[in-house]
Amino acid sequence: MKNVYRISIVATVVLLSVFIAGQRPQVVEKTINVKELVNMDAREFVDIIRNNRLTHIESLGGGEGVDERYRLYRFHFIKNWPRREDIPYLLSLVNSNDRCGALENIYSAFHLKVSQTNRKVSDLSVILLSAIKNGEFHIHSDIGPLEDREGIISWAKAEASKLEP
Questions:
Q1: What's the number of CA atoms in the CB half-sphere (13 Å) around residue 83?
Q2: What is the rounded CA–CA span in Å between residue 86 and residue 100?
Q3: What gap in Å lies between CA 59 and CA 74, rounded to an integer?
Q4: DSSP 3-state assignment of 146?
Q5: What is the pTM of this model?
């Protein structure tokens, strides 16, 4: 009976330790700036998010105006990124079970916890497809399931067929 009691105490301590470790704030592991981002394709960006638990995309500064050199407007939106040519690659990821990190939102009242930075590559790919469809990418996007996931995928498949020679 004592062994069962000891095992249950050890198991409780281990589970509590794992829970507490997951509640610590996640430290930014990678910082890229908008200048670097607009020169990347979707494959490079997905690789960065895959390899880092939390990525910060550094803006060029504030302002309602547009910085045409880097397609940045309305503070933190990049026009026409990713490129339409990235659609086939992103479509290849929509059913992926691979895990990736998250994007830091510096305007959030809460810091992401370690447990909140374990996202899905499939959700990231749909977010990037949505950005192509809408013509803008928000650099602080939350990598999570989108409501219109199937509609975005259908749109992307139709657009991909137009890209083929």
A1: 10
A2: 19
A3: 11
A4: coil
A5: 0.78
